[in-house]
Design brief:
This protein is of the alpha/beta class and 331 residues long. It has helices at 13-24, 36-45, 85-92, 117-124, 139-143, 157-167, 180-203, 207-228, 232-235, 238-247, 254-263, 268-272, 280-294, 300-309, 315-323; strands at residues 5-9, 28-32, 61-64, 75-78, 102-104, 130-134, 148-153, 172-177. Helix 3 links the parallel strand 4 and strand 5 (102-104).
Length: 331
């Protein structure tokens, strides 16, 4: 089967960038947007002025607020915020043809259920083939055609490779993996760790502390991924280490920018004020903490971030708590 028509749920920056990739790969693309002004700006200006201003969109992209238009698609990319994935897939379900694969492009852990995105999809769409797209990718860079490599995880190797071939272009390279859980764990935890790195930068703690946070954060990410059933070698790749390095190293990262504001003395409300895009780590942090506790996995950096966001401790106390932990073997 050759894919011809991709539907993209969610017209934020990342959803729009993926629509751009799919169109450049030769697919007809329907972008489903909740915001009428996004639909209008794409139709009239060929640009998503709300979420991805300055990027002219390919002619093969059309936009609609109606989920029913996705019934004509033979491939779906689901890109809503992680906490809204369940409702988005439920809205898609009546319009989804049997056998049409859904690629999950949202990164996070669902609050309340503590489920990964593939587990949410399995509950809502139990008979639908599922894949996961994750990796180091800033939406603006991808949309402008700068080189990017990602992980495309799918247990069905043939399907995974066919999806990868359908959306691959020279500047967007999907690498297939079988480990869906590992790919998801990396994407969910790195957002929380990016907030930690932003706090460190905002406090002026220096590059040595920044490097230590990335390295020890990666150890936390790996422990949790393995406890969930993922593989350490998966998170050592693009969807784990690669995504972590990118998200923790640039204020372009929405999550790191929130941390920068917190480290600089702002409240969480002040840090989030005026942002049109979602910083997934803010919603995922309490869920990641609860999930790690339920699995008896030690994640002190994620714990500290969740405590700061919940108002349980201030930034200075959280930093002191991490620095006062007992010394131990690195491995």
């Amino acid at each position: 089967m050759t894919f011809k028509h991709a539907g993209v749920i969610g017209a934020g920056a990342w959803g729009t960038a993926l629509a751009q990739v799919a169109a450049r790969a030769g697919l007809q693309v329907t972008l489903q947007a909740r915001e009428p002004e996004v639909v209008a700006s794409i139709a009239t200006d060929r640009e998503n002025t709300m979420f991805l201003a300055g990027v002219k969109l390919e002619d093969a992209i059309t936009a609609s607020a109606d989920m029913a238009v996705l019934a004509a698609c033979d491939l779906i990319l689901a890109v809503p915020p992680a906490q809204h994935l369940r409702s988005a897939l439920a809205a898609l379900k009546p319009h989804l043809k049997a056998g049409v694969p859904v690629v999950l492009c949202s990164k996070g852990v669902e609050q309340g259920t503590l489920k990964l995105m593939s587990e949410v999809a399995a509950e809502v769409l139990p008979d639908t083939p599922i894949a996961v797209l994750s990796g180091p990718s800033f939406a603006g860079e991808v949309a402008r055609g700068l080189p990017t490599a990602v992980t495309l995880a799918c247990e069905d190797e043939d399907l995974g490779r066919r999806i990868g071939e359908a959306i691959a272009i020279p500047t967007f390279r999907p690498y297939w993996a079988a480990d869906v859980i590992g790919a998801e764990a990396g994407g969910a935890v790195k957002n929380v760790l990016a907030i930690a790195c932003g706090i460190s930068e905002g406090k002026g703690l220096g590059r040595s502390a920044h490097a230590a946070l990335i390295t020890r954060g990666f150890a936390e990410l790996t422990r949790l991924a393995v406890a969930l059933g993922g593989k350490a070698e998966t998170v050592a790749g693009l969807c784990g280490l690669g995504d972590l390095v990118l998200t923790c190293s640039s204020p372009q990262s929405r999550n790191m920018s929130v941390g920068l504001a917190l480290g600089g003395g702002q409240t969480l409300d002040q840090a989030l004020a005026g942002k049109v895009s979602v910083a997934e780590g803010v919603a995922s942090a309490p869920a990641v903490r609860a999930l790690a506790r339920s699995l008896d996995v030690e994640t002190p950096i994620c714990e500290a971030v969740a405590a700061i966001l919940a108002g349980e401790v201030d930034v200075d106390s959280a930093v002191l708590g991490l620095l006062s932990r007992p010394l131990k073997a690195e491995v």
